[in-house]
Queue: 2 jobs
Job 1
Amino acid sequence: MFSLYMRGKRAKRQLVSTSLFAACLTVVAPLWAHAQNAPLSLTEALTLTANADPTATATNRRLAAADANIRQAGVRPNPSVGLEAENFLGSNPYNGLNSAEFTLTYQQPLERKSKRQARVGAATAEKDLVRAEGRARTWQAMTAAQVLWVEAAAAEAEIAVAQERLLLAERSQAEIARRVSAARDPLFAGSLANTDVANARIAIDQAKAKARQLKLQLASFWGGGADFTIDPAVLETTISLSGGPTLLETPDIEVLRAQQRVSTAQIRVETTRRVQDPTFSAGIRNFREDGSVAFLIGGTIPLNRFDRNQGNIDRTRAEAEAAAADIEVAERLRLRDIAAVTIRMNNAVEEVRRIDAEVIPQAEKAVAQVREGFARGGFTYRDVIGAQETLIAAKARRVEVLKIYQLDKAERDRLIGQWVPLIQSESNP
């Protein structure tokens, strides 16, 4: 009875657990499905790109090499052991080993601590440069991903324009077919209408293929496929810009500053090398003639008579000054480019506004008027097709201008460092 009771309790617990799991699945599954079907935002695309950067492995190994370089830079110079033999295998009393003298010495260069500190400082600066270069490579991949994301969104918008073109062409095809059947238009008018429909269908297929190819290129940054969507409505996010943007330190500038730190650290290294290190030596000498032993000590220090390392010091100072000049020029060029791209973006916003207000409404009105006149017999099929082509060209131009705006925005985001916070911090190699 007790065994049956325990089995019943376990079965009841399993049933409750299964019910809870099913209830959770009922709640989570729609959310997961929504997450799977939701359009890919720019932030998500750039985050995926930054997190899956294929250059991260190489950067981590370079950082490991830089750490080893730092350890090596702090190592003291090795001592040396020497052995000398004198007064043997000569003439008269020195023709054997009886008068020989053997000396065993131990020598240790006394390197100044400031030299090791300077080397470690230079190696640390070189590690900072490796880190900055790795971030710059990730930044470059993110910039390329943003451009592809914009182009993919524009391709999706081009599909919508192509579909509208097909809709207009099919409507005209039906109208022209009725007129041809009633012998009100020649047979070749129907053939031209059929050709226009065929071209519109081809344009849709090409636009879809282009969008898929661009999504595949974008997904290659994180090793994914084209099984995601991008909402073409993101192209509509346009604003007129005024005033100076908030600038962040971009990885490009980080690299230049790291190069400047390396050059500055090298100045200290070369300056410390100007002072020569003494060498201390101690030894023991054995006299074979009487078997006596004597100790000896000594030391040497090079004289700074000719080589004072001044050329290397001047070289590193010039390199540091050049690095500082590079940073100044880069900042100036950045401000110049930001101003130029901002003007282009504002011009694009104005063109889209005028297309929406002046071009597309008039083109749509012209299509309606030509269709009405065509139905009464006042216009030819060429007038209908021409009006439709004008409308489609206006909408295609609108998509093109929006694409130009978003591509300029990608360039502006790169210049101001908009997406720098998405770059991962250094991981442990």
Job 2
Amino acid sequence: MYYPYLRGRQNELLCLRELLENNELGNHITPIIEPVRCSSTFFSTLSKFIKMEKDVIVIRNPKVGNFDTEFEELESQIENSDGRKKESLRKAVESYNTILKNPYISNAFLIDDKIINDVLSSKIDAQKSVFINTENNFLDKYEDFSNELNSKLTIIPKDEDFKDLIIGNTVMLEDSFNKARRNVDYLDVPDERFNKNHLIYKRRGYNGFSDYSIIGKTYEESGFAPSAIAIHIMYFGKKDELRIHHFVSLTNGEPIDQARKFEEAMQNMLNWTQFSDIPKTKGLLSLIEYYNKGKYPGLGVIKKYSLMHHIETINNYLEG
């Protein structure tokens, strides 16, 4: 099983919706969403999973973004409103809570001291929850309370000592994306190994694998116009390991003329001698379609389709 770890940004959510609509999320992929905004796009995406009868994992104590604050503000607005607005807000919050309680939505918690205390005091039912450890900071807690922390699914860093402490199903989590400080820096290492976790996770006793795809673990609140555009595309190497190639624009002096930079990065891709090795997914073909029409999709859409390509590539592999 593959559990892509995504933040609930607009284009990541739209990526998941498009994958669902194209039946590109098979039975071997369950996304993890750490919501960063209390947005209609987030809840409509969850509704799509429910309608398609597909499982998705939602982190209920997100550590980045403003989801909790915005949801609380939405609830408080009900008390401060009247008439039609009050009723509309009440129905929206009621609908959102109903969605979050649906059986296709699994509750996940990023492990911290509060979550552990809530488990030990029976405020959280571990057996019905997914526990996520992005670091091995709480390894000692698992040593002391392994029975109590026995959850439906436990996601941990790629750490054999940690895995040995877990009772039940485990998923290895690895940040495999080497994020450069600047896009132009990818010119120094245009091609590199991503990981081979899809080949080894069963052999090492895990029930699945997870990563942050082409986004990386570090969360950035907002972007800016870069001096270079880099398109990150996954493909399989000669030994079926997953590799990533960074296709970078050429005119990288100033953060201007993004459309031209996109065209240069795409030309770099199409002229690559190993272009035939790249799986021709809907995500990749969508980028090529923008290029062929001479249209610049915007940085968010480029990331959306690159992410979509990665998930499709893994889905096709796991579906055989």
